[in-house]
Amino acid sequence: MKNKLFRIKILFIALIISSCKNEKSNPEAKIDETQNSLEVPLRVNLNVGDEIRFEFTANQDINVAGQQVQQIIGTGYTFEVLQKEGTSAIIKNTYDWMQYDISSDPKMSYDSRKGTQTGIIADMFNGMIGQSFTMKLSEKGEVTDVTGAENIFESMMKNIDPELRSQMEASMEGRYDAESLKSSIEQMVNIYPEKPVKVGDSWTQEIKLESGGYPMILNSKYTVTEIKQDEVVLYAEGLIYSEDGASIKNAGMEIGINLKGSQSGNITINLQTGLAKKGEMHQKIEGTMEIMGQTMNMNIDSDVLIISK
Questions:
Q1: Cis omega before residue 215 (within 30°)?
Q2: Residue 159's closest CA among 125, 108, 115, 133?
Q3: CA 132 to CA 271: how far, in whole Å?
Q4: What DSSP letter does each residue of 214-247 carry, written as one string?
Q5: Which of 240, 252, 234, 211 is nearest to 302 (CA)?
Q6: How far apart are CA 265 and CA 105, in angstroms?
């Protein structure tokens, strides 16, 4: 059981740094005469009744203290616009499916779409399916007023064996609170410039990440590489790093983190909704974790795919 709990900790550490915008790509902008002077506004543009379905999949190679872990993490969820408040949208976000596969021994495989798995991972993730939280999303991609996070966490824990529940609750503390959910969404949508842009224009964005309770800084530069009739392609590059002295309490232990990495990638924006319709990404993170006086090296290499429709 200790081994399983260790792998679950790896899973949630990886989740916080796997969904940033990045990819191996050529950043050279594609400019022609028709695109050169065309300017477009990039803003979230949702209407009441809109439903946007997202799919997120991360394929990861993780090494912690010499222990190699290969895993796949997948999530499907739906944005449903309930109402508008000025230029902001009140959105209900519902979890549709979850996937988690780990190839190293002991192997674990879960996919809620199959509906046949059992065990602690299945018990936990099955509780998320169909659960929702609401949020307010501004046209600039800022998330506020997150409600319902406590219901998701409670649903995840309700099917856990009572003898293990307290351990799991301690291990996952801060993973699904309002601030963590806000941060996980802003990683995908808080990317917009202050004014209309044309091919070749660039801007920077810095956001603080709290997903999983691990304080990280994401500093990105975005460049418009192509403008089409209904979409805009951005090239993103930047750094992600932990704050000085960052730490978290996990299962009663104080865990210090010192992580940093680089990232790059392409993001295709749907001009009708203003949301990213596709991202094909790559990210490399390395550093150390300090647990009970011991320092462990940690490396994560991730390939990420995000699709919305």
A1: no
A2: 125
A3: 26
A4: --EEEEEEEEEEEE-SSEEEEEEEEEEEEPTT-E
A5: 240
A6: 32
The three-class DSSP label of residue 40 is: strand
Output the CA torsion sign for 110, 115, 119, 123: positive
Q: How far apart are CA 4 and CA 161, in angstroms?
A: 14
Q: Which residues of the chain have pLDDT under 70?
A: 1-37, 105-106, 173-174, 210-214, 248-252
Closest CA to 61 of 276, 289, 263, 301: 301
For residues 178 and 210, give the distance between their C-alpha atoms in angstroms, rounded to a whole number.
Answer: 10
- DSSP-derived 3-state class of residue 80: strand
Cα 302 from Cα 22, distance rounded (Å): 10
User: Quick check: 43 and 88 in contact, CB under 8 A?
Assistant: no
The kind and range of the H/E element at 178 are helix 178-189
116-166 pLDDT, tens digit per residue, is: 777 777 888 888 899 999 999 999 999 999 999 888 888 888 888 888 888
Task: Determine phi and psi for 15, rounding to 5 degrees.
Answer: -60, -35
Query: 247 pairs with which residues across the strands?
Result: 256
Residue pair 69/102 in contact (Cβ under 8 Å)? The answer is: yes
Instruction: Copy the structure tokens of residue 127.
Output: 């509780």
Buried b (16+ CB within 10 A) or exposed e, 263-275: bbbbbbbbbebbb
CA–CA separation, 24 and 22 (whole Å): 7
On whether the CB atoms of residues 125 and 100 are closer than 8 A, the answer is: yes
Q: Which pLDDT does position 114 carry in this prediction?
A: 84
User: What letter does residue 105 receive in the DSSP assignment?
Assistant: S
Give me 307's structure tokens: 């699709």
Instruction: From 233, 180, 167, 168, select the one nearest 208 (Cα to Cα).
Output: 180
3-state helix, strand, coil in the chain (%, to 5): 20, 50, 30
pLDDT the model gives residue 31: 42
In the chain, the amino acid numbered 271 is: L
